[in-house]
Amino acid sequence: MDQNIEKFDLAIVGASLAGNYLCYLLSSTNLKIAIIEEHKEVGLPLQCAGIVSQKLIKIINLPKEIVLNRVKVAKIVAPKGKFIKLSGAEEPYIIDRIALDRLFHEMVKNKKNIHYFLGEKFKTFEYIKESGEKLLVIETSKRVLKVKMLIGCDGPLSSVAKSLGIKNKNLYAMQIRITANLEENEAAMYFDPRWRELFGWIVPEGNGIFRIGMACSQNIVKNFQIFLKQLKIDFKQKKDQQGGLIPYGMMNKLAFNNILLLGDSACQVKATTGGGIINLLTATKYAADCIKKSFKINNFSRKIIKRYYENPCLLTIGRQLKIHYLIRAVFERLGNKDFLKLFEIIKTSKIENLINIYGDMDFPKTFIFKLLRIPIVVSFLMKFIIKNPDIFVILLRIAAK
Ligand SMILES: Cc1cc2nc3c(=O)[nH]c(=O)nc-3n(C[C@H](O)[C@H](O)[C@H](O)COP(=O)(O)OP(=O)(O)OC[C@H]3O[C@@H](n4cnc5c(N)ncnc54)[C@H](O)[C@@H]3O)c2cc1C
User: Which residue CA neighbors atom 49 of ligand 1 most closely?
Assistant: First the structure.
């Protein structure tokens, strides 16, 4: 039996952005890496609207052809159609997500120490002891591997996370790409109680093509039809269609003996927008450092993984993700009148200025603290809390995490 077991230093499950970028960051070590992906082609199926802040170029070396467009204006639409347009220094990128996933795969796929197993599904793992050392035996749909570490980059429905007793709460998402006569430099967010857990979106891809989508916790097909009707968009005119799941909540536990979770499998996703790219790339750098350290000291215990991966994540993206979760909780409880009041506050106070200086799509902490110094905002929030006392339960949940 042992003769049929293939030995690797580590196995990564999932060859999407988290898995490929991690593989790239580790490719210059001499670690023998297996990367298991259930789909036959990297980058497909596409499950992304591709809107990412400029932080992307601070994290990775971004080839310019991956950027398809830039957004200058954010349009926020209240349930009954009134809207506000905001612009700031952020000007996010609209990216070619398939190309981004493939970028890292192309860079490492021919390296001797990297072994991609495409079209192969991770099934289970079990711990074994060998010469006093704790190892993992992993079963895929085609082979059995023995490794020192296992990395779960297998997305919202992560089998690795499930095996560890962790289950994400996910939203359903639908998106079409369509040619339309809309604003090329404007991204829009449509709020509505029927899809209150997120929003309907219009993202301008460039060249007259728009990505129109939505995410919510139930009735996604029906709600998406309502949304398209509202926009006077004919579904049949679509160029193509995407679907997917978006984890919803705060970051999960990341560290286990010999195992770590990364990306959507760990819910490293902003609850305000469903965006995961910046957080997962940030977390991947910590994961790569942690893996290198673990192999250097030959220690794969939960304690070491917590120290070098989970704790740095908690102190950086983890804190910001908690704020996203709180903002989301507030947004979910806003009615049409609350939105209109908010728009009025934004127009009459210094908030537009603050957005320009401190607005940050990924790390909102500084902006939120600045907002809380504006008396009219505090008064709005006090009234909101009196009307929605259950927000305290969310605050307690956040504090306890
Ligand atoms: C409709 C939609 C729009 C989005 N828009 C944006 C956006 O505009 N900006 C943004 O920042 N983020 C966006 N996101 C979120 C972003 O796409 C995710 O955060 C990101 O893709 C997570 O990457 P990942 O590598 O962690 O997981 P995933 O991209 O989910 O990849 C997981 C990989 O694991 C593989 N896998 C799963 N199970 C197994 C198994 N058992 N065996 C082998 N392989 C397996 C899957 O096939 C997949 O390739 C969007 C998500 C959706 C669904």
Answer: 16
Superfamily name with CATH number, domain 64-95+169-247: D-Amino Acid Oxidase, subunit A, domain 2 (3.30.9.10)
Dump pLDDT digits (tens) for 350-377: 787 777 767 777 888 888 888 888 888 8
Q: How far apart are CA 23 and CA 379, in angstroms?
A: 49
Judge if 2-45+98-166+252-323 and 64-95+169-247 fold alike in CATH terms: no
Roughly what angle, to the nearest 10 degrees, separates helices 17-26 and 277-297?
40
pLDDT 10s digits, 120-154: 999 999 999 999 999 999 999 999 999 999 999 99
Q: Is 198 in the pocket of ligand 1 (CB under 6 A)?
A: no
Q: Which residue has the higher pLDDT, 361 or 242?
A: 242
351-358 helix and 336-348 helix, angle to the nearest 10 degrees: 80
What is the second-level CATH architecture of the domain 2-45+98-166+252-323? Answer: 3-Layer(bba) Sandwich (3.50)
Average pLDDT over residues 229-244: 94
pLDDT number for residue 2: 59
DSSP 8-class letter at 113: T
Q: Write down the pLDDT at residue 121.
A: 98
The pLDDT score that the predictor gives to residue 235 is 92
pTM for the structure as a whole: 0.94
257 ligand 1 Cβ < 6 A: no
Cβ(273)–Cβ(246) under 8 Å?
A: no
- Atom 27 in ligand 1: which residue has the minimum CA distance? 155
User: Would you list the domain boundaries of the chain?
Assistant: 2-45+98-166+252-323, 64-95+169-247, 326-400
- The residue whose CA is least distant from atom 30 of ligand 1 is 155
Residues 240-255: what's their mean pLDDT?
A: 94
Looking at ligand 1, which atom is closest to the CA of residue 159?
41
**Chain centroid to CA 80:** 29
The Cα-based distances of 156 to 47, 55, 376 in angstroms read 11, 23, 39
Which atom number of ligand 1 is nearest to the Cα of residue 122?
42
Give the mean pLDDT of the chain: 93
Q: Is 47 near ligand 1, meaning CB less than 6 Å away?
A: yes
